[in-house]
């Protein structure tokens, strides 16, 4: 069951720039080979930095010059137009490989010791295959992001999602797909005529858990992405849903209704031992692990409406966490464990919001509008963005927003159809 790969599955639509974004110029990389370079690395880096909401790259037509190395840079010229400058080059190496170099400069800060008109913040050389060049560009973007902001980037990461296409006959095709964070290098992990849902990444990014309705019955599967081999984890009567890996990858939280109503269970993946974690007449579902692995949050309607609760992995009484709004569900932990991304409603559509675990305050990231529902929030590995699915009318697509709520973007399928249930993979 090998993955089928295409170049780009998703389109990223950014309708407005972020207020206060950092000016940066990324000069087209020099190319020392015949014809054109196999990948426009500088364009990939520009796209990455722009979609982060943190940076505002200079348009190529506005570049005052196009230097390749540090000695080619006229720093006084650049000081009049930007704060940071990226230059680089690519050349053919041995055995079909490529040598890539880049440098990032703070053009406003002089380095008198080196005799330069600007200060180099970072720079590196890579020896990569042609297939790894886009990943190299994402790696460069990550290093630029961290050098300037002090926080890790999340460009060289992957996402998983579900697509749905309706044939002329009215029958539907479903696919579980993975792609780079910008939608390129899309690959189908599983294709089915039955629904697929709830993908969940293992901590090492090597496996995916998901729910498949093959045989017209919900089952939870675990699949190795390198080999395509998979195994069925649960196939109980009733609900088998919402798989979530523990931070150490040894356990999985799931929702099962085999003993009556939906409850949260933990599966020990090596022994297949099953431990029931919740025991309540209400519906308990959508578990998500705390980063320290000591507790989980889940959605329950035990208070009358769906709200977020927390319970120890050892069991015991559950603590209600959400109190603002009539509906809070689908929680996802931030990497630092301080916030939850949730689906929130106060009566006017379903928003993506952040729940502060210390104060209990809920801060919406998306606008509340009738006819627009948002679902399935998933944090980027650096905690700077939230990926989610959004439904408008009869269409469902992916969207993302920075955690300050100021920079939204839409990620529709280029081929049309519906796309939902996103899950952001851990850093590579």
| Structural Rg | 23 Å
The CATH topology of the largest domain is Neuraminidase
Mean pLDDT: 93
Helix content: under 10%
CATH architecture of the largest domain: 6 Propeller
**How many distinct helices?**
3
Count of extended strands: 31
Strand content: 35-45%
Total domain units: 2
The geometry reads as globular
Biggest sheet, open or closed, and with what strands and sense? 6 strands, mixed
Could you give a short description of this structure?
The protein is 8% helix and 45% strand.
Present the secondary structure layout:
Layout: E1 4-8, E2 22-26, E3 30-31, H1 41-51, E4 55-57, H2 75-79, E5 84-92, E6 98-106, E7 119-128, H3 133-149, E8 158-166, E9 172-180, E10 184-192, E11 196-201, E12 207-212, E13 219-224, E14 230-234, E15 240-245, E16 251-256, E17 263-268, E18 274-276, E19 284-289, E20 295-300, E21 307-312, E22 319-320, E23 327-333, E24 339-345, E25 351-356, E26 362-364, E27 372-379, E28 385-392, E29 395-402, E30 408-411, E31 418-424
Parallel strand pairs: 2-4, 2-5, 3-5
Antiparallel strand pairs: 1-10, 5-6, 6-7, 8-9, 8-31, 9-10, 11-12, 12-13, 13-14, 15-16, 16-17, 17-18, 19-20, 20-21, 21-22, 23-24, 24-25, 25-26, 27-28, 28-29, 29-30
């Amino acid at each position: 069951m090998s993955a089928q790969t295409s170049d780009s599955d998703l389109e990223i639509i950014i309708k407005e720039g972020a207020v206060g974004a950092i000016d940066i110029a990324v000069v087209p990389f020099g190319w020392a080979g015949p014809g054109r370079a196999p990948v426009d690395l500088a364009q990939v880096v520009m796209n990455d930095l722009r979609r982060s909401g943190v940076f505002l790259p200079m348009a190529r037509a506005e570049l005052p010059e196009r230097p390749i190395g540090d000695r080619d840079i006229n720093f006084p010229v650049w000081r009049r137009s930007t704060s940071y400058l990226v230059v680089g080059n690519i050349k053919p190496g041995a055995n079909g490989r490529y040598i890539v170099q880049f440098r990032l400069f703070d053009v406003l800060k002089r380095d008198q010791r080196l005799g330069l008109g600007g200060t180099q913040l970072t720079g590196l050389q890579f020896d990569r295959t042609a297939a790894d060049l886009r990943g190299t560009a994402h790696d460069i973007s990550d290093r630029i992001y961290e050098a300037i902001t002090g926080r890790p980037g999340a460009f060289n990461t992957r996402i998983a999602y579900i697509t749905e296409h309706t044939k002329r006959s009215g029958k539907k095709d479903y696919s579980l797909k993975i792609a780079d964070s910008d939608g390129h290098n899309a690959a189908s992990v599983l294709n089915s005529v039955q629904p697929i849902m709830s993908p969940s990444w293992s901590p090492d990014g090597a496996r995916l858990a998901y729910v498949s309705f093959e045989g017209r019955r919900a089952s939870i599967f675990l699949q190795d992405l390198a080999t395509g081999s998979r195994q069925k984890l649960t196939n109980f009567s009733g609900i088998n849903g919402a798989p979530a890996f523990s931070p150490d990858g040894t356990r999985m939280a799931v929702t099962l209704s085999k003993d009556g109503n939906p409850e949260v269970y933990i599966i020990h993946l090596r022994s297949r031992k099953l431990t029931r974690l919740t025991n309540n007449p209400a519906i308990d579902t959508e578990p998500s692990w705390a980063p320290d692995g000591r507790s989980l949050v889940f959605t329950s309607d035990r208070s009358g409406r769906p709200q977020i609760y927390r319970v120890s992995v050892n069991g015991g009484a559950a603590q209600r966490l959400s109190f603002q709004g009539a509906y809070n569900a689908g929680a996802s932990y931030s990497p630092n464990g301080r916030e939850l991304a949730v689906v929130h409603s106060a009566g006017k559509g379903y928003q993506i919001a952040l729940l502060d675990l210390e104060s209990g305050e809920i801060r919406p990231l998306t606008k509340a509008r009738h006819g627009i529902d948002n679902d399935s929030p998933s944090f980027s590995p650096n905690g700077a963005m939230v990926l989610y699915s959004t439904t408008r009318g009869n269409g469902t697509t992916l969207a993302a927003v920075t955690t300050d709520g100021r920079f939204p973007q839409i990620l529709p399928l280029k081929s049309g159809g519906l796309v939902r249930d996103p899950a952001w993979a851990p850093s590579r």
